[in-house]
Amino acid sequence: MSSSEELEQFESDMELALYREYRDVVTMFRFAVETERRFYLANDVNVVERDGAPLEIELNDAWVWDMYRPARFVSHVRVVTFRDVNIEQIADESEIPQFPPSSLGK
Questions:
Q1: What's residue 4's pLDDT?
Q2: Which residues of 4-31 are buried (b: 16+ CB within 10 A; e: fewer)?
Q3: 3 state SS of 82
Q4: Which of 50, 67, 73, 79 has its Cβ near the most Cβ atoms within 10 Å?
Q5: pTM
């Protein structure tokens, strides 16, 4: 195996481990926040908008999607950006549909 193949395999393994961690922790958080640079899960999100100024987003009790970061749980994050930010409230587990729905199996 060449070194480029080894690196590619290493990155694939890290990304799979990160996805599994995400799957395990997503139910611990209330919000999903996507910026141009990062994806976060957080329990508290505060957005400050001012005319002509960059958008400020403060996250508390957060998890960061970043496979190169050794500690993905962070207590406070401050994002300052002029770009779009997507903030979604995560549904409770009881609201998430189970697949396949029982009517499909009949």
A1: 87
A2: eeeeeeeeeeeeeebeeeeeeeeeebeb
A3: coil
A4: 79
A5: 0.78
